[in-house]
Amino acid sequence: MMPMVLMDIGSTYTKAMLVDGHSGAIHSRAQRPTTVNDISHGVESVLHELRSSVDHSTWQQTKKLACSSAAGGLKMVAVGLVPDLTAKAAQQAALGAGARVQSCFSYELTDADVEAIAGLQPDMILLAGGTDGGNQAVLLQNAQMLTRCDLSIPLVLAGNRSAAQKASDILSRQFDVHVCGNVMPEIGTLNVDPARQCIRRIFLDTIIDAKGFHSAQEQLDGLVMPTPAAVLQAGHYLRKLVGDCLIVDLGGATTDVHSFCSGRPSSDTVMLRGLPEPFAKRTVEGDLGLRVSAESLAAVIGIPSLAAAAEVGAAEVAAWLERIKGQPELVAEDELEARIDQAMACSAVKLAVQRHAGRLEQMFTPSGAVWVQEGKDLTSVKTVILAGGFFAYGGWESGTFDHLFVGDKDLALLPRSPSTILDAQYVLAAAGLAAEVDPSVTETVLRCQLLDGENWEANG
């Protein structure tokens, strides 16, 4: 197995590691601020540092792969028919491809909707609507409305196959149209993988060139996928090692939650309401972040609650929020600031997981009371991976965050006292990238760098 450079080009930092393909050991690391105007400069600097740590022949054999969330990541708008059905399916397809869904629209698009979509300036649009052989009118109407947007971007068409060709003919006058399988061919049936693959392919072929990534690619063997897609891919392999699991990636702007479990009702006495949940599900909370979204996080949680959790005064929390508002790159420099950051991080993680999870509700019918589940059941999850700079660089002791999932209400289908593991080596995205070349390296890296080499039983 060849050595690999696995790089994550983020909005703030470009991070990379040189991994031994045989042992999974990290030979060396490098990190530089992302050079926003021309990311190739930051990439070149990181590669130069890694290259200096090995001999020439080893470097020549090294495979160099990268993922990226720079320039805001892959920004998408999803359009469907019914909010809880095709619109939700379209959103899941976009999120599963690693996109940042700016907004999701339902029913027939209005002039105001079209204006809003144009104002968002997305990188791509995903248009769905109607089951195969079902409603055609809304898909065709929305295709016509979208041509009013002053946008010339890729558009993925994943709706009713009976109307797909007509819709494509309408849209192709303005958009670069890519037709794929319907995200919901039948009521209650999800089919998001074709759309996910199509979105990812367009990202590689089109978006990265439009954002000036081409020169960076010349220094690499491939810019493979958006960073969230790499984390999602790592999660599939992680699930083989530890069983049903959850990844919570806490960032400065968002908190992403990835779950890997069936999520179906755990009892025959519980009925499922709404669209079935994907086995690998991703949600993004744009109001829960430690820096760019710190103000919205404080508004949701409440400054008094954060102060109580940090055991400081409300004035100290407000002062810290004001400081990082103007300087989001700041890190905590003393115990007081560290306690506030920890309170913010714990609050963001807990709330993001609550939003990701499903709930039980008791309903009364003529036959008596029944339990109904809406969303995904996470009670089978026994392992939660906490990722992001806060967890990677905090020097936390094992078990510090186990309390986050203790004592939650029974009606919320949350993990029940799982073990928490910190991605202290920042390896999740790197491990997901490695799977593009050699999946065995992915499993080796996860075992050695995330699971401390423990003899986890495969749960495939």
> How many strand units?
18
Number of domains: 3
Strand arrangement, major sheet: 3-2-1-4-10
How much helical structure, as a percent, in the residues? Answer: 25-40%
Structural class: alpha/beta
Outline type: globular
Radius of gyration: 23 Å
Unreliably modeled segments = 454-460
User: How many strands, what sense, and barrel or not for the largest sheet?
Assistant: 5 strands, mixed
Percent of sequence in beta strands = 15-25%
Q: Provide the residue-averaged pLDDT.
A: 86
How many H/I helical runs?
16
Terminal CA distance: 23 Å
Question: What does the model show?
Answer:
It is a single chain. The chain folds into three domains: 4-71, ATPase, nucleotide binding domain (Nucleotidyltransferase, domain 5, 2-Layer Sandwich); 73-207, Response regulator (Rossmann fold, 3-Layer(aba) Sandwich); 243-428, no CATH class. Helix 9 crosses helix 16. Helix content is 38%, strand content 22%. The chain has helices at residues 39-51, 56-61, 86-96, 111-120, 137-146, 161-171, 193-210, 214-217, 227-242, 294-301, 303-310, 314-326, 335-356, 389-392, 428-434, 439-450, and strands at 4-9, 13-19, 26-33, 63-68, 74-79, 99-105, 124-127, 154-157, 176-179, 222-226, 245-250, 255-260, 270-273, 280-285, 359-365, 368-374, 383-387, 419-422. The two termini are 23 Å apart. The model is unreliable at 454-460 (pLDDT under 50). A hairpin with a 2-residue loop joins strand 15 and strand 16. The protein has 460 residues and is of the alpha/beta class. The protein is built from 16 helices and 18 strands. The protein has a five-stranded mixed sheet, sandwiched between helices. Strands 6-5-7-8-9 form a five-stranded parallel sheet, with helices on both faces.
